[in-house]
């Protein structure tokens, strides 16, 4: 009988709605929670505060996954290929430090893997990878309306024009990793 080997990854690839939608389709992912990390102001930040760009936080997702089904390395490979890790503080029309590409590692092994994956995927990009790799300090869960955003708002323009292309890329590049 197989037992779960649950682990957590925390990444930010621009708007958390996109990253959440991508990982909700990945086999072995148990849960995806949108939130904020990496800031430098006290207390639990709000979406409005994050959007100001003044708190230092990034929009991130925390991914709980079964490492017996999908590895941390594969989680990061999916992450690094479904957003643009070569643009500093922006993804598409979203601009600001809150939209930076970032991997927050939970331990030294995750740090090593993040550095390796970043180097490996860099050969597929014309421009240098700018994804920040930093230790996770604190993760703050985002407000309820930001959880399961794509599932609850598929008819919204943002979902059609921004999230759907990322999901198409996921399906094309990682079809063997989907639920």
List keywords for this structure.
179 residues, alpha+beta, Peptide Methionine Sulfoxide Reductase, Chain A, six-stranded mixed β-sheet, two-stranded antiparallel sheet, 33% helix, globular
Describe this structure in words.
By secondary structure, the protein is α+β, with helices and mostly antiparallel strands. It has a single domain, classed as Peptide methionine sulphoxide reductase MsrA (Peptide Methionine Sulfoxide Reductase, Chain A, 2-Layer Sandwich), CATH 3.30.1060. 33% of the residues lie in helices and 23% in strands. The chain is built from six helices and eight strands. The protein has a six-stranded mixed beta sheet, covered by helices on one side. Strands 4-5 form a two-stranded antiparallel sheet. Helix 1 crosses helix 6 and helix 3 packs across helix 4. The longest helix is centred in the last third of the chain and has 17 residues. The chain is globular, with a radius of gyration of 15 Å. The mean pLDDT is 95.
């Amino acid at each position: 009988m197989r037992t779960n080997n649950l682990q957590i990854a925390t990444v930010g690839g621009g708007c958390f709605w996109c990253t959440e939608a991508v990982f909700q389709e990945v086999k072995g992912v148990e849960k995806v929670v949108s939130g904020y990390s990496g800031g430098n102001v006290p207390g639990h930040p709000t979406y409005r505060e994050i959007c100001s760009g003044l708190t230092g936080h990034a929009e991130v997702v925390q991914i709980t996954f079964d490492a017996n089904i999908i590895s941390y390395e594969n989680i990061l490979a999916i992450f690094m290929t479904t957003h643009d890790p070569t643009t500093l503080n922006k993804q598409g029309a979203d601009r600001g430090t809150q939209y930076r590409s970032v991997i927050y590692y939970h331990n030294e092994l995750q740090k090593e893997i993040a550095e390796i994956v970043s180097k490996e995927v860099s050969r597929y990009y014309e421009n240098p990878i700018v994804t920040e790799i930093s230790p996770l300090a604190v993760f703050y869960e985002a407000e309820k309306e930001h959880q399961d955003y794509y599932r609850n708002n598929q008819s919204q323009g943002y979902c059609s024009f921004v999230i759907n292309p990322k999901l198409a890329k996921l399906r094309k590049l990682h079809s063997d990793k989907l639920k």
